[in-house]
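To: structure desk
From: M.T.
Subject: fold request, one chain
Message: Could you run this one when you get a chance? Sequence is below, nothing fancy, just the single chain.
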Amino acid sequence: MASPAEPGQAPAALGLFRHAPSDADLASELDRLGNAELLRLELANWLLGAAAMQVLMAETTAAGAGVDPARITRAAWRLLSGASCDHDDHTKVVFAQLLARQLEHLLMVLTAESVKGRVVLPLLIQPSMLIASHLAALLQAGSGSLSGTVTGYPGQVRQAADGLKGAAEVLEEMAARASQAREFTLTASSREREPESPAPAL
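Reply: Done. Structure tokens follow.
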């Protein structure tokens, strides 16, 4: 496992930090957090965010350059080789579970920021967080099945499936309400544009 200093080197190389964190910087952060493992986790997430932004920019540029979408999708294989888990099926699923869990955590953070009034988020964040949670649970059941450590695999899959069905019902209701609101807005706008009838002659 990397030391807390090592995950800070890569964000500096990507331009996220002006310079790699010094021993004094790390000591200050350690005092703030109170735990070396939490410091390592924060720096690792910083690195993950910087790398993800590089993926976003590269993917956008590749799509704009007319690269075959299938090849853009297959480029995600480098996630596995970069994580050194491309030769082990169980570790591949564990890694996918990690990404799903990170998505859930990110959506939870965004929701908390919205509650504090720091950001304005669409209503779809809530069902998205629910879907991410059940996706992570489904992948956890899959990794447990591959390793032979899970005992209630069918029940776990059924529970995740029921949760995803519930999320789908919520989305269907939101879509119906959005459609009704749009129809109301269009109708009201159309009425506003209608010319007024001339007053009857006296």
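Reply (cont.): The first helix runs from residue 6 to 13. Let me know if you need anything else for the meeting.
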